[in-house]
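Readers outside the structure-tokenisation community will struggle with the description of the input data as it stands. For illustration, here is how one protein appears when written out as sequence plus structure tokens:
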Amino acid sequence: MAKAADIGSKRLITLAPDAWLQWVTQRPEVVAKEILGSEFHWISRETDVLVKAYSATHGDFLVLNELQLRYTTQIPLRMRAYTALAQERYRLPTYPVLVNILPPPSTLTIVNSYEQEFLGLRAIQDYRVINLWEIDAEIVFQQPLPSLLPFVPILRGGGEVSVVQRALQALRADAQLNELESLLAFFASFVLDTPLVQQMMRWDMAVLRESPWYHEIEQRGIQEGARRQLIRVLEQRFGEISHEVEVRLEGKNVEQLEILMDSAIAVNSSEEFVQILST
């Protein structure tokens, strides 16, 4: 059985690290020197890849890659924390990049910086945002960007059967890439009928279950179902709820949503629920 790293972020980026860095930094002279450890004491995540890069203009620097299945309100703070930890550990300037794989709910606005002011002091961290659904699928074949081949179905213009087949042919033509066929099938299932995807390519659930994205989608599905159920209860009891409440519910885990569901049933007004949500 393949390990999670085999079809995770690190595996994808190491397929063609120079091409990846040149794409995310938009600087053709950048080259990869080393894939570094992204474990900082108590923090370790499978979606983060830290690369030591070099350019003649800027010398050595770090590129922090965060591949996020779906954007959440916690991401800006995470990008700030990971950037600071990486820079402290390796003593190099750090270029953070957030790659969002799937679009977030319409209630969320994606931002490209973390900002906080407290007692007159400010904390700011900018980072580059790349939304895959805004990227033209043709770029993957033209540049080329083999790291993005499994994501072709969810790129702009990539949901056509003919385009997915091109990605499949590219994966099968390279011994290093053909192990990613199951991941391509996984993302193809978001835009094509599952029977068609299964007919076109291998669908290895044993491999997919080892992918960090599969587990995240599974967990997010449960979380989103609990959130929607809570919103329905609130609307049935108190009418339409505010956009602010919907946004604040986005960051809650399943356990927190279950507790809030009990509160939604017990309170006498939407204002009372908002007060509980604020605590």
Notes: Strands lie at 31-36, 48-55, 59-70, 94-102, 113-118, 121-126, 128-131.
